[in-house]
Here is the input.
Amino acid sequence: MKIALCIKQVPDTTDIRWTENNTIQREGVESVINPYDVYALEFALKLKSLVKSTTITVFTMGPAQAEGMLRRCLALGCDNVVLISDRKFAGADTYATGLTIANAIRAELPDFDMVVCGQFAVDGDTAQTGPNIANFLEIPQVTFVKDFVEFSNDKLFVTREMEDGIETVSVKGAALVCVLKQDFEPQRPKINGIINATKKQIKILTMEDINLTPEKVGLKGSPTMVSKAFRNVSSHKAEKFNLNVDESVDLIENKLKSLEVL
Here is the structure.
């Protein structure tokens, strides 16, 4: 089985900065792997441990500083890493990002059997990039995946977390799965894995390498845009009281009366 694992680096800071186009500034800001993508990585590694001859190729789109994140994936057991990097990709929305990553997968791993993504990215929280990749690759998708059940007869069985419970679904052939956060602690790389990761080559794909044009990528290829970006500032004023139960009840009652709730 050949797995294309799509991950993203997100800012590791509360001091988010925006560009002149109201997109998040990526370069020069310390970044980490998106938390949901950590569990997508664990999902792919679990499949590799259970399905014979599985290889994992990691794809990420962003600036050169993503190299550290990619080498961590190698240290954990992934086989190959691809950095999709070009100044022309800057400012891409989820549509343009999905198209770019899908074309990179076609160029580098055309015979893939599965694409694995995190369900959300914490810096955007749209849950649109994974489904967009599936759309451009013209493959089925399974979202809100909680766990892997089994893989047999070219059919993948997974559990999905829904609003009204857990369901088990199956998908046959090449497909994309979007993984939720799990209930376990992700594994950490071992010394041998870290050493081996330093020897691996990181392949870089530019716009020309994936057969796209400037009109299809970045801001030019994005049908949506951020009109305004701002930091929410709370104006709530808190008061602290040291009261017993009866005094607390009286205080709350008086507050509610002053608000004309009671």
Observations:
- The radius of gyration is 22 Å.
- DSSP finds six helices and eleven strands in the chain.
